[in-house]
Amino acid sequence: MKRLVLIAALCAALPVLADREGNVLKARLLGNNEVPAVSTAAHGDLEVRIARDGTSIAYELNFSGLQGQVRQAHIHVAQRNVNGAIVLWLCGSATNPGPAGTQACPQTGRVVGTLTQADLQPSTTQQVTTLADVVEALQDGVAYVNVHTDLSPGGEIRGQIGGRH
């Protein structure tokens, strides 16, 4: 009986232990997720980790196989199959540099960083004026990430961010 109580207590604690660093959300980036869809063999993934206090978002973006030269990558607020406003830049290029401090995009590989309120590009049309608004959109599944190239300026690969993992 004591063993059963101990197992039950451990099972109850697992979500808290798993969430000690905040919410983890993921996205799988593919060309057919773009609006309109893009025919490409490129793919990628994004993992964001929202700080427990909601004041920062750590991210890791990985991508490969892009047909065009990478120009920029960012997070937008919009539901699936709808294009939305850019709210956070992940990386840019000489052609599309992004706000001051935006890191350079590789042609393939990994981009990591941490975003705060200072990195936010407010969107009044989408009512996103604080990082808390972005966090809410991420948690509600109404945000996406995409990687733009010279051949697909609207985005070559895209993934809806959502689902706690």
Describe the 3D structure.
Residues 21-165 form the CHRD domain. This is CHRD domain-containing protein. By secondary structure, this protein is α+β, with helices and mostly antiparallel strands. The chain has one domain (21-164): Immunoglobulin-like, CATH 2.60.40. 16% of the residues lie in helices and 37% in strands. The protein contains two helices and eight strands. It has an eight-stranded antiparallel β-sheet. Strand 7 and strand 8 form a beta hairpin. The protein is globular, with a radius of gyration of 17 Å. The two termini are 32 Å apart. Residues 1-20 have low confidence and may be disordered.
Summarize the structure.
This protein has helices spanning 2-18, 131-140; strands spanning 23-30, 43-50, 57-64, 70-77, 85-91, 109-115, 143-149, 157-164. With 165 residues, it is of the alpha+beta class. A hairpin with a 7-residue loop joins strand 4 (70-77) and strand 5.
